Amino acid sequence: MIGEWIHSHVGVTLAVTVGGYLITAVYVPRVLFRKSEPGATLAWLIVILLFPYAGLLFYTVLGTNRIRRRRAARREYDDQIEAGLVELLEPDGPGGRPAAPEPWIDTTIFRVARNLGLGNGTAGNDVVLYADGPAAFAAMIAAIHDARQHVHVEFFIFRHDRTGERVLDALIAAAKRGVEVRLLVDAVGLAMTRTRVKFFAPLELAGGQVTRFLPVGWVRGWSFFNLRNHRKLLVVDGDVAFTGGMNVGDEYAGRRRRWTRPWRDTMVRIRGPAARALQAVFARDWYFAAQESLADQRFFPAPEPAGSDVVQVVPSGPDDSLLRLHRHTLAVIEAARERLYIITPYFIPDPALASAIALAALRGVDVRIMLPLRSNHPMVKWAGRSFYEELLEAGVVIHEFDEGMLHAKALVVDGLVTSVGSANMDIRSFRLNFELNIFIYGSAFASQIEEVFVRNALASKRVDPAEYARRSLVQRFAETTARVLSPVL
After folding, report:
1. Residue 260: its pLDDT value, please?
2. Is 220 exposed, middle or buried (0-12, 13-18, 19+ CB in 10 A)?
3. Are the C-beta atoms of residues 380 and 489 closer than 8 Å to each other?
4. Which end of the chain is more exposed for a tag (fewer CB within 10 A), N or C?
5. Residues 269, 336 within the same domain
6. Catalytic pick from 106, 152, 186, 237?
7. What is the pLDDT of residue 96?
């Protein structure tokens, strides 16, 4: 009996050991051939070598990028809709009348944008900033009520709460009066907030369409779990659009959730030619998720000038091998000559971004970064704090906001160039998520973002380099540990 027990367990042990070696032999080369960041590659190699079976599971869920493979498998169909969208957006350029480079903006920014395929942006737009939730949601709901032909909605999080009900009721009312309503929500975003699909059933009964982006089931879809649609976008009748950092939920709309204060965030409304470029972003995402082409003239009305703002729409995602948003952001930061203000809730820069920020400070630029003092993702907070020392030594000023959760994402350079949108200053936003930022060129809008920064700074604590250097060993350990894990956070 004992002999049989030993024999069976030796066999199991041998099988497990051989299986571990096979996993290592197969997946180590795959990790090396990914051509990812050295830190991320090293982290995955360590996990797979030390814990082959757990490493295989985590790598399948978090480390693989099957988006490009999926797009390649249906390239012919993607090319057809892309050709249709390009034709609709011509001959006026990508989204309307191309903007000429302004003499007071470093032309390097526009040269990089053109070489990345982004163009110079479009002129003739009116951009309105909403720096508080109640005003933003009032404006979005009003736009939905005014819709005549179609409403296209895309959010990472759409909570089943009072704010979610308000927005959903507006969409249902629009659908009942004959407006085409399409709602695209991220599947993991729904799961994170425990929002069930049946919450949207009344909208479908009213004639609207609801689609989840990359759903994850018990068996299928886990390889897409780490690649999420983090965009926030509302387009009404193709001529007015909203985008920014706000999801649909009470905390974004200025309401308390349990023990938390209302979140501080930003949203912008855009009228003019750039709304068509944002419509194209939705059309591509909708086709990817629902396989319905929106490459139709009725969704892309002729652009009419609405203001004087120059807007450049920059979407990004794991299917973007050029990392357009990341590289364009670097170009904007490197063009800074006087001041650079950054607002972000999550700060885990890759080496290139961290170096660009530090170098800006070292060449005499007034660099200021605003982060939340208390984060809803503690591990991400500690990872971000691990960069404080090198940035403080370079002369960067860091503010930690202390009136609720700071969720806004904005960057402004020299009071002339502004970036707002869904992307955080972290590896996930620039490499893993589908994100959407807009760049506004001009002093009028930039001054509004700088005013928001100054106002928030009054409710913030400035990080003192000497005090930070005296932080406890526990804090140092937490920061170091989080930084090691930062490539997969």
Report:
1. 65
2. exposed
3. yes
4. N
5. no
6. 237
7. 47
pLDDT in tens, 416-446: 999 999 999 998 899 889 999 999 999 999 9
pLDDT tier for residue 280 given thresholds of 50, 70 and 90: very high
Residue 317 lies in a domain: no
Which among 388, 303, 240 is positioned nearest to 97, based on CA atoms? 303
145 is catalytic: no
Q: Is the pLDDT of residue 184 over 70?
A: yes
Mean per-residue pLDDT of the chain: 84
Q: Are residues 187 and 288 in the same domain?
A: yes
232 tagged catalytic: yes
Among the listed residues 160, 232, 328, 381, the single catalytic one is: 232
The reply to whether 409 belongs to the active site is yes
Distance CA 380, CA 488 (A): 10
Does residue 461 carry a catalytic annotation?
no
Lowest mean pLDDT among 55-59, 167-171, 195-199, 320-324: 55-59
What pTM, to 2 d.p., does this model score? 0.85
Is residue 132 part of the annotated active site? The answer reads no
Number of domains in the chain: 3
- Structural domain harbouring 28: 2-64
Q: Assess whether 260 and 347 both reside in one domain.
A: no
Q: Which of 186, 239, 320, 414 is catalytic?
A: 414
pLDDT digits (tens, 9 = 90+) for 134-146: 999 999 999 999 9
- Give me the pLDDT at residue 326, please: 96
Catalytic-role residue among 152, 326, 381, 407 = 407
The active-site residue out of 150, 160, 230, 381 is: 230
pLDDT for res 5: 46
Same domain, 31 and 90: no
